[in-house]
Input
Amino acid sequence: MSKPPRYTIRSACALTGINANTLRSWERRYGLVRPERTPKGYRLYSAEDLERLRLIQRVLEQGIPISQVEQHLAGAGTGELPAARRAARRTGRGDAEPGTRTVSLSLESVGLSGSVSIRVPERGAERSLESLGGYAEIIERAAIHYDRVSLEHAFSRAVGLYSLRDAFTRALAPALRRIGARYLESPEAIAQEHFLSSFARERLSASLAGLRPLHQSPRVLCACAPGDVHDLMLMLLTLEIGLEGVSTLYLGADMPSSALERAMHRSGVKVVALSATLDLPREELARCAKRLAAMRKAPTLLVGGPGALRDREWLKSHDIGVLPEDPREAAALIVALAEGTRRRPARTTAAH
Ligand code: B12
Output
């Protein structure tokens, strides 16, 4: 089994949207998170550390000063936070004071049971930012105006409050699809789509860069199908696999099958995950699957994305697995295959 994943400070920044100086200062000045250190002194964050960082961000988002966060989190064990107790004392009852609202925070994500309610100042402007749908609109507007500052701000905030996965799939991706859908009405939409997809690639690349597992040779090869450059979901999938502690070989866009086969051979990966948004290059894939079947210790070949879903039956009939649409489910399946805890998809008997 793979070791629990640990993240470098670079990954932690990319995954939480918090910058490195802030992370160091939260550790040094307030002792809010204490990551492990490598023998050379580099910080390594655990998944629990990342969840705690997200919880801290949620508390800060409610207007609690950083200097009081530790106290708030410490109060969590009693089921009530100090701010809530103080507010209740002031009003003599537990319900709302004018100008304040109650926020419930689940502690499950940091390994504690139950949830806590805290009373925080009403901040009208923040409320509209609370749902990811709201972020999708802000991101779309920012892309339409090529407003990098607002884009950075909204996306980082969504990452911080939710996760990179949710921020990407529920805020940035819908904005991208909406902008993409407008290209017939407005030629400028192509420029806006490029602006937003480049931004998404930058952010996903930054996360991937910090996620190279240090202790394994790669087990999963990730690439786009030949001729296909839509690599955003592939990057997210690669990230999900990495977050499970499984090492990947990311080859990116438009991978010709001949090069793919050589890379599979040399790297010795156990699973090959391809992403296909456009229609499948059937001939090339069929040739690749055939050669693969003749290999000793052949890796499992799987394809995901809209192109694969449209051609599901054809893929199955060629002994090629189809990945679930949800990138997280797809990653779970790949990880299970890479770790040998799940059998390869059954060979079909359909005619080739
Ligand atoms: C961004 C984008 C681009 C960018 C790609 C940037 C990049 N680095 O990825 C650029 C500008 C380069 C581009 C180019 C082209 N594009 Co384009 N593009 C898009 C756009 C707007 C988003 C694509 C995307 O990232 N989707 C991923 C997420 C955001 O959305 P989703 O598809 O709904 O994904 C969900 C699931 O399907 C699943 N999923 C998706 N992919 C995968 C992969 C895996 C492995 C898994 C597990 C799950 C999964 O996850 C999502 C959550 O549920 C779409 C519009 C759209 N509606 O998707 C067009 C779109 C995909 N493009 C299209 C086309 C036609 C092209 C071009 C041919 C245009 C041209 N004439 O040059 C070229 C093709 C270039 C090539 N050779 O590949 C068409 C495809 C039509 C088709 N059915 O074949 C679309 C649908 C636009 C349209 N409505 O016509 N494109």
